[in-house]
Amino acid sequence: IVQPGRITDQHCMTMDWSATMVELGGGQAHPEYPFDGVSLAPILKSPDATFDRPMYWRMNHRGQRALRAGDWKYLRVDGTDYLFNIVQDARERANLAKQEPDRLAAMKAQWEAWHDTMPPIPEDATISLGFSTKDMPQR
Description:
- The chain has about 140 residues and is α+β, with helices and mostly antiparallel strands.
- Among the domains are: about 15-45, no CATH class; about 55-115, Arylsulfatase, C-terminal domain.
- The chain is about 20% helix and about 15% strand.
- A four-stranded antiparallel beta sheet has the order 1-2-3-4, with helices on one face.
- It is globular, with a radius of gyration of 17 Å.
- It starts with 14 loop residues before the first helix and ends in a 24-residue tail after the last helix.
């Protein structure tokens, strides 16, 4: 596996760790219940062997939804759409939604297509924050 001190530019999500650990342990997902994530085992073996794939997420809190694809991130919070070039703006400060309406529309449509394949989020799915929503940006 990766030598100490090595880093990778591979982006990942927590759901990738289940697929990764099962693969490293020699197992595989049940055919009827595939993993939502992808295995990062190839990256752990060779940190330079990165791959690109869209990453989607959603949560009930403030109606959040997001899609990361390539250099771009689409985000919706409290009904407001944001579009960031995360390579040029890693801190996500410059909302490019108005400057890039076609890209925004395409990413929204891509997110909606993914969302339509997912089961609904249960209404009682809540989160506990270690801080108040007053502490979060209210753009």
